[in-house]
Recover the amino acids of this structure.
């Protein structure tokens, strides 16, 4: 059985996340990933035209899995807005497992977006949709449009900052996010 039969496109994308978490965007190279997977580069090129196409695949997978699929799953629950916000926090604080690079991969994606236009556009698009969705949830919870938008940004910013603090051992991400949500929901 050849490499192309053993490894799927998703296997390569997962390897990309692990590489990204360990070595940043510079680790997203066919040769390095093939070496880590102990296969030839042929499998990589079976699934991806080139490294830029692979990077597009990594970013696209992240955007869909970490934004679109979560929003769709939450909306399918048809719960009250506050319950949906609580469940959203449950999803948001789940750190990627080692197969996807572990908790460091989130920071690595953001770092990549600091100097790569394509990564920056994907992160910006995902964040825009995330904040719009959380704004909508706050509005459904009875807040004015203006207050809902501010609180959505605060909740999202809290998540980003608390993720960093949690990685350093200075925060309980889930507990702190729930405290923040309850304070933002209680604001008139």
């Amino acid at each position: 059985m050849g490499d192309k039969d053993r490894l799927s496109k998703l296997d390569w994308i997962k390897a990309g996340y692990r590489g990204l978490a360990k070595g940043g965007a510079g680790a997203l190279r066919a040769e390095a990933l093939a070496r880590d997977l102990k296969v030839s580069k042929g499998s990589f090129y079976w699934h991806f035209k080139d490294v830029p196409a692979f990077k597009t695949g990594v970013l696209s997978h992240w955007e869909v899995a970490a934004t679109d699929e979560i929003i769709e799953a939450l909306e399918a629950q048809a719960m009250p807005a506050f319950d949906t916000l609580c469940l959203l926090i449950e999803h948001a604080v789940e750190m990627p497992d080692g197969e996807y690079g572990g908790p460091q991969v989130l920071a690595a994606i953001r770092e990549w977006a600091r100097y790569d236009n394509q990564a920056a556009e994907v992160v910006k698009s995902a964040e825009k949709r995330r904040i719009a969705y959380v704004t909508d949830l706050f509005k459904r919870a009875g807040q004015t449009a203006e207050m809902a938008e501010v609180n959505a940004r605060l909740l999202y910013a809290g998540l980003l900052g608390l993720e960093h603090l949690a990685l350093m051992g200075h925060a309980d991400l889930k507990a702190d996010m729930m405290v923040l949500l309850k304070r933002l929901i209680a604001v008139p």
Observations:
- Residues 139 and 145 are 6 Å apart (CA to CA).
- Residues 1-5 have pLDDT under 50 and may be disordered.
